[in-house]
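Protocol check, entry for the methods section draft. Step 1: assemble the input record (protein sequence plus ligand SMILES). Step 2: submit for complex structure prediction. Step 3: store the structure tokens unaltered in the notebook. Ligand used here: zinc ion. Step 1 record:
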Amino acid sequence: MILRARWVLPVSSEPIPDGEVVVEGGQIAEVRPRSSLPDGDALDFGDAILMPALVNGHCHLEYTALRGLNDRTPFFDWIRTLVALKAQCPPELWLPSALLGAAELIASGVGFVSDNTDAGVSVEALARAGLRGRVYQEVFGIAPEPDDATILRELTAKLEAHRQTLQRYEASERITLGVAPHAIYTVRDSLMRAVRQYAREESLPLSIHAAESSEEVALARAGSGSFAEMFVERKIPYLHPRVPPIEYLHNAGILASDVQLVHATRAEPRELEMMARAGVSVAHCPRSNARLLTGVAPVYAMRRLGIPVVLGTDSAVSAGSLDIWEELRFAALAQRAASYAASPSWRDWVRILTLDGAKVFGVDAHIGSLEVGKRADVIALRTHRLAYASMPDPYAALVLVARSEDVAFTMVDGRVLYHDGRWIGLDVPALQQEVERWQENAPLH
Ligand SMILES: [Zn+2]
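Step 3, stored output:
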């Protein structure tokens, strides 16, 4: 198969005007200027950009069906409402909800997603949708019961079920597993340490929501604020560490190069140094942070210290949509506004969304750029709209103008998942009907 477009953006090398990508057996066989082979042999997108499929560094696909049902703020009220909504949901809702989220990502040009799942449905959702990714099984435990050993036994059973699902769909090479002890206000100290130990023994990476909100920082530093009041009310013993959240995780020996910290919106300079030394990465989800009033993460400072940053949409119930281009634009502009610096550059941002993102998840040998020998994870983005006119720099065009609706084609592992508004392999209208039926039967509020 030959893919052609006015621009080919390999990311790892300079853009090729009027280029083509040759795909053979699920692999990229060649990336070159347009050949003289007749059009009949090629899929020519014309006025478009061909580039690697994108990396979404943090998501909760199963919450897609909850979109629009939680507009509470500040963060504490939002997360309390989310917990209440989840408690009303029938378990059968989670899989179609996650599949709808996967469809939205595919239509946005995402080929790899890092997803945190409580219900555990993300492995099947990614496998069925044809996506690549990392699925972190979430762990919660703040009240004294059940004890750590029980929670770890349950975790082991869930991971075993995930491995069987991966085998059933022959997706073990595309999708890897991890563990997500959710946050310091939902996972007690002993459990956090036990999960760290478990993950080390099992060679599983960790994902932790950390330093997201001022409420979380107040809890950790002073044992005060909304979370602390809730613990008193529920008679949950909580010994606050008297240091901010990431410093606590550092002191507890949790931080290491296999840890992803989600948000780190409130990370303080000393914590940033600890993060850099430990080699953790950060998932940056700026629309979610803005919507839930938690601030703007210090991405500029993180990158200066060499902390790898990936971009994530977070869930549809926090960010509103899974449009990764919206996330990209908001991230780039909010950082400029907050840091008064033109760094990361447009090109840096596109790398974060592709090659640098792939590197953080250890898959850059296979995906993240258009290079001979890599897997064929390729998207085509049409640049017909008026807003693209007189945009000579394709990187600037992608950051400032691109949106999901421009994506014409998404291929993962040589398999076409989406072409001109149609999903191949996912019956999206049927999934929508299924979700609507659940909501009609048991309206969530
Ligand atoms: Zn999250």
